[in-house]
Structure formats: C-alpha cells, structure tokens
Automatic annotation (TrEMBL):
Key word Nucleus present: no
Reactions the enzyme catalyzes: a uridine in RNA = a pseudouridine in RNA
Keyword RNA-binding set for record: yes
Classification via InterPro entries: PsdUridine_synth_cat_dom_sf, PsdUridine_synth_RluC/D, PsdUridine_synth_RsuA/RluA, RluA_PseudoU_synthase
UniProt-listed PROSITE patterns: S4
A Pfam family that the UniProt record links to this protein: PseudoU_synth_2
Name of the protein this chain belongs to: Pseudouridine synthase
Keywords: Isomerase, RNA-binding
Family named by the database record: Belongs to the pseudouridine synthase RluA family.
Enzyme class: isomerase
Job description of the protein: Responsible for synthesis of pseudouridine from uracil.
Amino acid sequence: MHSNKIFFNVEEGEQGLKLREYLRKNKKFSGRLIKGAALDGRIEVNDNRTKLNYILKLHDIVSIDLAKEETQNVEPEKMDIDIVYEDEDVLVANKRPGMVVHPTKSYQSGTLANGLLYHFREEGESCIVRLVSRLDMDTSGLVIVGKNQFAHMCLARDMKSEDFEKSYIAIVHGNMENKRGTIDLPIYRPENVMGIKRIIDDRGQKSITHYNVLESMKGGDIVKLTLETGRTHQIRVHLSSIGYPIYGDSLYCEYDDSKYINRQALHAYRLKFPHPRTGKVVELETDLPDDMKRLIDKIS
C-alpha cells in the first residue's frame, strides 16, 4: 500500500523553530504547499493536528499527508503508455514520437496527460498529471511527472542540481569537427516571427548544451547531448546553429529528409534525478525508437 504521508524527525539544532519556518527553510517546502496542507489539516506533529506557529521540540515527529482530492481539466483516455518507472511520488513515461505531452487548443485529446490520468484512475489514485519535464511533439523519450505537490516541488527545484541530468541522442547531418564540446549560445524568440521558431541572439536567454559524438557514419553523426539549461527547442537550435542540423527537423534543417525519417531524430534517452522522498539518485535509460534505428541503418 502506498503511503501518502511523509515524516520528518526534528533533529539536534532544529528544536525551537516554528513549524512553518522548519518546513520552509529546513525542508525547502513552498509556502503554497505549507499553507494548503495547514488549511486542510494535513500537517501533524506527534499524530496531532498542529498550528504553523507551534514551536518544535527535539525528536518531534512532523508528518504531512500528501493526499488531497484534485481535479484537472483533462479527459482520462485509455491508451498504451510505456511506463518506465513508477512509485507513490514519481512516474516516468517513455513518450512515443508524434504524441503531444499535454492538451492544447489544437490537441484536446490523445496526449500523454490524457493517458496518464486514465492510468492513475485505473490504479485508484486521485493524483493529477504534474509535468516536471516536457518534450516537443516529435521528440521521443523520457518524461517525468510528480504524482503529488510535494514530489513536483522537489523535482522542479532539483532540476538545477548536479544530481539531475537529462540526456538525449540526436542523429545529425555531417560529421562534427570537435567530437565533444559545449555550445553556449543565447536562444531568443523573435517577436516578428510567426509560430514557435527560436533563433540565436544576444537578447536571448543563456542556453548551454554539452555534446559528445558517440559514432561517426557516412551520412552523419550519432550525438549524445546533456542539457545544462532547458530552453524551448534548445538542442535543435544549437545543433543547427553550428552547422549540424538534426535529421528530419522541419523547423531547423533545410534538407528534405522525408526518405529517411518523418520527424526530428531526437530522443530523450536518459534521466537521472534525486528521489523527492529518499534523496537517493534514480537513473533510467531507454532504447532508441525504431525509426531512429532505421535512420542509422540508412546512413551508415
């Protein structure tokens, strides 16, 4: 049975703090989570409902019930989803290419969020879909979801830590001159351009991508990329800007690659993150999808 409660033991040096201050500063809880849980009576000290100005004593046991009734404006839909990892706090799915992550005006159904909500209901869980990471519709691979407010808060916060790593595999045109390196170029969304295209521009946000060529072939390179920042289209913009566009990228590649692949050859293959509840580092990897394997065969 999943436990919806999280427990903390007040340690030496923490006694004398107000409960609110302890949760905020020592446990890095957001003010919103603390306030909501307190209003619902979901915070207890030594099994008793407690006010936030309670002064903590050594070895007090603080517990927070993470379960709460929540609704989301997403229709649950039965679909085949590749779930790579799941526990009471976190779910990681391997998204197939061509699937939108979350409903939009253009895509009201058939999204990953629709399928995950159905999965949660089937399992008798009342959680909503809290996306920690997102992928473009035509990028495949690992997407991480927090199953409660606490997990989402921790994962979003830890994305900037060294223990959190998102790595991708791309197949690019051309053989890269430097087999490993870092692309540090600011990415900007121009106001006068229709749609979602981004450009390299000094007015943009700092964007850093580390790359490493895994294999060079006749028709291009297989490249591993790790993001230090997470801008929209970051890998696609960065690779095309240095002259190695991704195969099949209709937005940033000028070649017609339709005989090779019908989407950008980009896959979020590896994820590493500290678990919200235990702090232990979780590492997950997925295989390349079939269309990218076929592309490699064609250009080898």
